[in-house]
Fold this sequence. Notes:
The chain has a domain at 73-239: Rossmann fold (3-Layer(aba) Sandwich). Helices cover 46% and strands 14% of the residues. It is built from eight helices and six strands, in the order αβαβαβαβαβαααβ. The strands form two sheets. It has a four-stranded parallel sheet, sandwiched between helices. The protein has a two-stranded parallel ribbon with strand order 1-2. α4 (93-121) packs parallel to α5. The longest helix has 29 residues, at 93-121. The chain starts with 5 loop residues before the first helix and ends in a 7-residue tail after the last strand.
Amino acid sequence: MVFAGxxxxxxxxxxxLAFTYPLTRARHAEAGAETARxxxxxxxxxxxxxxxxxxxxxxxxxxxxxxxxxxxIDIVYNNASAARFGSIADLSIEDWRFTIRNELxxxxxxxxxxxxxxxxxGGAIINVASTAGWxxxxxxxxxxxxxxxxxxxAMTRQMALEGAPLGIRANSISPGFIITPGTRAFxxxxxxxxxxxASIPLGRPGEPEDVVxxxxxxxxxxxxxxxxxxxxIDGGTTAC
Length: 240
């Protein structure tokens, strides 16, 4: 399959979608346009916007644009992120702050500005964390990524408590290794793929559908009594 972004996969899984999709870098515009085309061709409604969600005004503009285009916000799916890696000794302060800004700050900012709109009628927040929020990684220099994803999991629980009286549910998803455009090169290398799958009890890397299938469920009325949870999607890796 061709991964065209979580939005397209959510639609193809049966969700009726009307949403604004953030393009955190101008170079993502072409991919975003293709995702929008797939969604529209399937009967959905989608707009895209180039914005910096780590900047308060950028996050505010994205939320305001979504409301202007669609009239309301029912679901916030915080999936955008960008990390830099290095050991504790080698990671620069700049790279630490970059990762905090682009994996943790933006989750808070988009949720903060969407909150008043969700509070009008209730809704759902799905934050994409990672198994890095639950465990370290030997020799891979993930200290900043560990910090942000652990923070996303903890922040989601607080969102759930503050949102409950308003009818807002908040949950997080912690994927393990998922095949995406950014990771495909690893699995196309037979040696690397064998090393990866050896550590996964189910014997394969995850696919985008494995993640967004759960996201679609958490956004639906079928998950009406689920809030404050983190769902690990890693083929059993963290059970080892």
